[in-house]
Amino acid sequence: MALSSLLQPKTVPQGPQEQDEGVCPSSSWISFGSSCYALLEANLESIDDAREFCKVIGADIISINNKEENTFILKTFQTHWHGPEYISLGMFFDTDDDVFKWYDESKVNFTNWMEEEDNNELLDTCATMQTTSGVWKKTSCEHLPLTEVLCEAISAYDKKYLPDKAWTTVLVITSTVIVSVSAAFLWFLYQRKVSSATIMTQNFSRQVPRNDEMILIDEENEYTA
Questions:
Q1: 178-201 burial, b for 16+ CB within 10 Å, e for fewer?
Q2: Percent of the chain with pLDDT over 90
Q3: Is the pTM of this model over 0.70?
Q4: pLDDT for 120
């Protein structure tokens, strides 16, 4: 199947606009807060494949940062997407820090886990969301539901006002160039000043007669007299 056909979001019926609507890539995306969301049909094998799948269109796999966003996603599945029973979240268990983290490196400020036994083995553990209830479930990263992927992108409005890494790099380089040019110019002025002082000293030395020359002139004047 062609990649272009895979990246077509599921058709979303037009309805009331969500709060704080941003500018999304197309009407097939749904805006909420500062993000745009699209449910894409796919048949992937891993969470890494899902992330790359979303990144092709400038997005990433979904991360949920508060209760309001979780409620919005649940509501949208009920009214628009009508997707599978579970979708994969962009979350994994970090065994080094012994905590769950989002792949996009946003802070985990909110969770909505279903009641489970606490003694479950968390090695190679990811997360899914039940689309009928909005609760989260710990799932093996090797058995994630990836026939459809929910991608999230920052809206164009927020991209306009967020500092971009490329622009940051340009600003750093520009600042470095300006400082370097200024330093070179000051060094040039300093060297020019030193050179002028040296020339003046040499000219003064040529104009002032030495002591032995003055004595010789005085003796010649006395002899003539």
A1: eeeeeeeeeeeeeeeeeeeeeeee
A2: 50
A3: no
A4: 67
